[in-house]
Predict the structure.
Amino acid sequence: MNPKKAGYLTLALLAVTHLVQANPERPNVVFFLVDDFGWGALSSSGSKFHETPNIDKLAASGMSFTNGYAACTVCSPSRAAILTGCYPGRTHLTDWIDGHKRPFAKLRVPDWNMKMEHERILLPEALKELGYATSFIGKWHLLPINEKELMKDHFPESHGFDQNIGGREWGQPKGRGQYFHPFDMPNVTSKEGDYLTDRLTDYAVDFIDQKQNDPFFLYFSYYTVHWPIEAKPELIKKYEEKLKAGKFNHTKPAYAAMVQSLDESVGRVLDKLKEVGQADNTIVIFTGDNGAVGTNYCGGLRGAKAYSHEGGVREPFFIAGPGIEPGTSDVPVISTDFYPTILDLVSAPLKDEQHEDGVSLKPLLLQTGRLQDRSLFWHYPHYHRTTPYGAIRNGDYKLIEFFEDGALELYNLVEDPAEETNLADTMPEKAAILLEELEQWRTNVEAQLPTPNPNYDPALADQ
């Protein structure tokens, strides 16, 4: 090794050692990320059919954000936004990998990015600099599917995680077993009868056991409740019987059974933290990557996964941990905020040049101040149950711009959370102000826009 480079590495290691020694009680971080999880799928959010006592208890133990958002209505961009602290529009990772192909649509989607760039310091890398042990468990879906030569450089281990349990290019369980043994996933062993959510939880509690004396970051990224809807037979039977006993706002026993397995998993991890004496020294975060596939699970909000409306992006958004008093906040927040918030809560310097679009929520969590007023943005120049669009939320109002024809929709989300009344024609000045801010934001982050498609064919556009 070059002596000069070796010297730099020695200094870096000494600096990390000093940081860890100076902060021996640095809190652990457990991050629960649920796939395709609707805002109304929890019993604490109004579901009478689903049973989620452990998640409900977690929500009640910390700060619950009633206006918590994912950064995109589909999975890969939202997941990248959490790890980078940047909007998908900025990183150009704007669709699920590898996206839909619509060769005859009115617009041609941009040549977008299908990976996180190594030049960025991601959240797990920032925590490793502080001496954290880092574990990725579950769904990754953040590497190119058709560019095999790149895959080895974009697994979780290449982006700051010490171990990868189950993460690969898949966006859902595949193969013979899907949610049941066998699982064709990295570093996951199983036996007949094993259920994926339970098996991944085994690895999560083992990691806590192994690292209980060190600061650790456990990023538990569930495959559930993504399709296929497969649950343990005994739980399906339980909810079939429950459905017979009364009328409920949800009516799918297998889905409810998957939600119960998710809740049991969260409970096992929280119980392990108590068992090893780390419950009071751990920041716990719970959220989803986008809305549910069905509107029935979005708590009465309009739309669902991939759609431009609230059902596609409004998520459960809970943060609990040392010094965080139980309560609720109606301040709009978004998943780019997790990166700076975690650094701030573990008393580490923020990396403003990395998590460019996130802000620390620590003042709200510790009730020491408020956030500066800001707008939130979404950018989806793709086709997927909807046509390409952009959106902005500023205060009570949300504006959606559809790129095919420039149509605008404006809603007051406080008075009209279900987005039933489009105010764009009755409040044209407000719509114009928000549209100008949205356009300026796209310019500032150099967001990619779709372009006219020379092969547009109205008869074939939906193919």
In short: Residues 1-22 have pLDDT under 50 and may be disordered. The first helix runs from residue 3 to 22. The CA atoms of residues 231 and 258 lie 5 Å apart.
